[in-house]
Amino acid sequence: MTLLSGAISLVMALLAAWTLRMVAVGIFRNIVAITPRVIVQSLMACILLGVLGGLYPAWRATRLHPVEALRYE
């Protein structure tokens, strides 16, 4: 799910960069550059944040007794 949201965000960023390139004139035309390194870094950051965001609820769930966990359902 995290990787899917990262891929969707990446496609949106590429479309925004392409749009800016088409609209910009002169020196501002090359102001937006999305390199493969930026793509890899953004996907790695997305995965890291997704894992960290899922660890806390999982850690908290392991500390509950089964009866208490079911009481809140």
Can you walk through the features of this model?
- With 73 residues, the protein is mainly α.
- It has one domain (2-71).
- The chain has helices spanning 2-23, 36-62, 66-71.
- The two termini are 23 Å apart.
What coarse outline follows from CA principal-axis ratios? rod-shaped
Proportion of residues in extended strands:
under 5%
The span between the termini is 23 Å
Counting structural domains, the number is: 1
Low-confidence stretches: none
Describe the structure in brief.
The chain has 73 residues and is mainly alpha-helical.
Give the tags.
75% helix
Fold blueprint:
Blueprint: H1 2-23, H2 36-62, H3 66-71
Helix pairs in contact: 1-2
